[in-house]
Amino acid sequence: MAYSIFKTNYAYSMPPDGFICLPMSFLRRHTLPGFPLTFGITLLWVGLLVVLPLIALVVRPWQDGTATILQTLHDTRVLAAFRVSFSCALCAALLDLPLGILLAWTLVRLQPPGYRIITACIDLPFAIPTAVTGITLATLYGPNGWMGKLLAHAGLQIAFTPAGIVIALMFVGLPFLVRTIEPVLQNFPSEVEEAAFLLGATPFQKFYRVILPAILPATLSGFGLAFARCIGEYGSVIFIAGNQPFRSEIAPLLIVMRLQEFDYSGATTIAVLLLLTALICLAGVSFLRLRLSRGLIMEEVK
Amino acid sequence: MSVTLQSFTQYAPGSSRKILDNINLTVEDGAFIALVGPSGAGKTSLLRAIGGLSPVYEGHLLIDGLPIGHSDLPKRKTGFVFQNYALFRHMSVARNISFGLDVLPRKHRPDRADISARVQDLLDLIQLPHLAHARPDQLSGGQRQRVALARALATEPKLLLLDEPFGALDPIVRRTIRRWLRELHDKLGLTTILVTHDHEEALDIADRLVVMQDGRIVQDADANTLNAYPQTPFVMQFLGETLEFAGEIQNKHFIPEDTDVLPFPVTENNGKTTVFIRPSEVRFVAHKGAAHILSQTRNPNGLYHYTVKTTQRTLDITTPVITEHAEDEKFGLDISQGKIFPNIR
Lengths: 302, 345
Description:
The complex is a heterodimer. By secondary structure, chain A is an all-alpha fold. Chain A is about 75% helix and about 0% strand. Chain B is an alpha+beta fold. Chain B folds into two domains: about 5-240, Rossmann fold; about 245-340, no CATH class. Helix content of chain B is about 25%, strand content about 35%. Chain B has helices spanning about 45-50, 95-100, 110-125, 140-155, 170-190, 200-205, 225-230, 235-240; strands at about 5-10, 20-25, 30-35, 60-65, 65, 80, 160-165, 190-195, 210-215, 215-220, 245-250, 255, 265, 270-275, 285-300, 305-310, 315-320, 330-335, 340. In chain B, the strands form four sheets. A six-stranded mixed β-sheet of chain B has the order 6-7-8-3-9-10, sandwiched between helices. A five-stranded antiparallel β-sheet of chain B has the order 13-12-11-14-19, with no helix packed on it. Chain B is elongated, with a radius of gyration of 25 Å. The chains are: A mainly alpha, B alpha+beta. At the A-B interface, α10 and α11 of A face β6 and α2 of B.
């Protein structure tokens, strides 16, 4: 009885506690208790914290007219900063790739002594404030730092060059790769590796033919995450980068500089560009990953 | 290919607990042996050691009489079938089977046509000729099992190591694959070592059984010897249902604690001991005790099941022998067919 009343109410009036009026069929498909409430909270949360700021960001540049936008887009310094940001992020993510796979494999398969400490160290970049990372790296690789001095003897300068940026970004990006690959490897039976070994595969063949295909989708998403994070990384980079325009100046730094000059529309234009490119990169990676995992898992449907 | 282990000992990683304790085992060329024992007895560890998957050990491991290092393992021509099959999920069945050939250095690798011909032969052998392009995930347990076997056989091993290969299969498929595996062993002239915890399976398929317990070999013999002369009560219990009767030997006679069990002459010396006997070897002797049958049923497999009550305990006896005792008739139990293990009370 109670159910039938509820049902008729439901069909012809507003949903009881829905925040947004949704197609009835969608709400009615779900029989979970409190579904409209939880769904509403989720929508509110996503809307207020994610979508609204993004809309504000996208709208802001146009308020001062298209001229400023075009000016920013033609600014060679901005373009150079983008070049630096993207090339360094790509380099860092690519360099992290083999490192991350190796680390994840070592941690999962060999469980070396001090396993827990190593794991904690890998997670550290997640936890340390980025400014702390930046200043630490800058001191380490600076002309008088331990590494900086050593490398200077070899005629290499890391600090205040794009190489410094890459090192800072590698530090930030590595945990993304390790943490995405690790669970996949953990679920990958070690017997499969042993079978490959017993069938005469060399270590390289074992990795290339057996392990890599299994971890490739996870590796790709780890790569995508690391790359996206590296594009926007600010705090850990600016101290070591030297911030010379056209050479080691990153795009996020330009945003801050424009803001300090009260050029809000210039700053937001750069921000929107960064956002768009990061989104495109992530979408591309997810697309690749989807195709890859289809090849690995979905083929059974055929 | 013969395998010899001499005082082979292996420790659990990072501890002094012995997984394998002073194993001495010889497997002759062409033999089919089964490693049996309860879970945790070290069967799989022993098999992995023979396969070269545990490089750290004490003692000697000889293949064809030669100590062979860990590194030249592929040359040992060993095929290994894992308990969970360990197939390569992202490869087709055909690619799984040809893996051992695909990874050969170019100068030893057969050309493509040869490889695919070999794969087709193996698919015919495992009776799955139409599944070359299927993925492992699409197969049933029994099919995966056979693919794993075909993959192990593709490199023409002389030694085949099987770790609980029939574990996940239903009884009918189990029996079929078991018979088929035995035929394959004879046809290809393999040396096969099979790990199983199922003694009936082992008795059915293997020439020789190696019974393991707590990392040691308890007895190594063929099925008849194991049945007739088990070395320890454990072996006897492991191989089938066993009844125990505690008692004492006095003047070359075994006097059971249970007064409804009849004494019988023995050769052992005086002292407390236990008689172990298969239920089917127990005989009922009328008018000699106070035991009686509580209930009897006939199982569909042709065995009679009696619940017998003596003054001290209630016994379940399953036997192919029918007795003509009425339910209220009293009798004594004759256990003179039982075994007494010296040193075991």
